Amino acid sequence: MKSLILIRHAKSSWDFPVIDKERPLIESGVKNIKKVAKKAIEFLPENRTIWSSTANRATQTALLFCENTFMNQNDIIFKDSLYTFDGSKLENEIRKCENTIENLILFGHNEAITNIVNKFGDKFIMNVPTAGFVYLQFEQNNWQNISKGKTIKFIFPKEITE
User: Fold this and answer.
1) 79-133: per-residue pLDDT in tens?
2) Whether 69 contacts 76, CB under 8 Å
3) What is the 3-state secondary structure (H, E, C) of the chain?
């Protein structure tokens, strides 16, 4: 059995004079990923591998999420290939995951995240929002063979009441 947790980067801004890959999180994005992380703690598997896109906003999101869930930030593997908005490209990266890894947590971007969630989950989600967390589980034991799985949990910032 394999599990995949997809987390879309938190809210960033187009107002900074930087290239897309360098866009930073804004204050509301920081606040939202911290809220989601605190709700997600109970759903995080013990043994896990953490991958993140190398885009600044995804990197910041991964670091904040780890900090707020007491996961070691040094365990994050930053992969330039995860800087994609294409669901097929993201799927190809997931399928390359080593089979010794049971639980993969991935920080990335939309449209790719929403496409993967809807292709492999059993609940349709119109759009995974920024800082959105979706936990999928598969019966297969080989990442190359994953097919339709179960949507175990999703956590979106707007649904969290404090």
Assistant:
1) 999 999 999 999 999 999 999 999 999 999 999 999 999 999 999 999 999 999 9
2) no
3) CEEEEEEECCCECCCCCCCHHHCCECHHHHHHHHHHHHHHHHHCCCCCEEEEECCHHHHHHHHHHHHHHCCCHHHEEEEHHHCCCCHHHHHHHHHCCCCCCCEEEEEECCCHHHHHHHHHCCCCCCCCCCCCEEEEEECCCCHHHCCCCEEEEEECHHHCCC
Longest CA–CA span in the chain (Å) reads 45
CB 126 within 8 A of CB 24: no
Domain extent listing, the chain: 2-14+21-159
11 contacts 66 by C-beta, under 8 angstroms: no
* pLDDT confidence of residue 41: 96
Question: d(Cα 3, Cα 130) in Å, to the nearest integer?
Answer: 21
Give me the percent of the chain exceeding a pLDDT of 70. 99
| Domain 2-14+21-159 bears CATH identifier 3.40.50.1240 | yes
> Crossing angle of helices 27-40/56-69, nearest 10°?
40
Per the prediction, the chain carries an average pLDDT of: 96
Q: How many CB atoms lie within 10 A of CB 48?
A: 15
